[in-house]
Write a structure and sequence with these properties.
This protein is α/β, with parallel strands linked by helices and 242 residues long. It contains eight helices and eleven strands.
Amino acid sequence: MIAVPKPLKYRRVLLKLSGEALMGADTYGVNRAATERMAQELKSAVESNVQLAVVVGGGNIFRGVAPAADGMDRASADYIGMLATVMNALALQDALERAGVGVRVQSAIKIDQVVESYVRRRAIRHLDEGRVVIFAAGTGNPFFTTDTAATLRAAEIGAEIVLKATKVDGVYDRDPLRHADAKRFDVISYNQALADRVGVMDATAIALCRDQKLPVRVFNMSKAGSLLRILQGEPEGTLMTG
């Protein structure tokens, strides 16, 4: 008997990955095995015919230069972080291409010899043609996080939801890694997340999602198949909504 694929709940999504997702068990940098595993998870999503955009952080690389950045001008440090996200985007692009997935990297700062510059209409065309689009360099401005960049890009491309991949399986009332009795929310409102300072996203990003009525699902990407299950409408992790 031929298995019938489950219908998708979403047509276009934006996935926010931390730089640490590419780090694996290493203390910093890009771990090839972890990056290839991530590429396979994204490939399964693309093969389900979802339009997938990705924003990746730079913490895994910036962590290696953080001691040198101590006391540095904040704007300069943020530009270093932006360049770190470009390196991560290129690593993920390479892993996806070796997995047979079409992909383009677009940067918010001009590095035309390396990646495309961010152009909204071009990004949407790539998505319509079945390519994964990786947005790098944050918003292109210092003082803004990659979470804010993710929500901004999601709103610009008309994504139906932001998928925030973390190390834990949702939003908790307190740190589950420190408190065994921490309780997980199945659903949390934007206002409660802001009031309780849950820490899963910065306040600017949450407020932007609230204003744009853009839901966020927080989940554990290390669980195999979790991304595809979300796309199929299964209640993975925590939904942040109005």
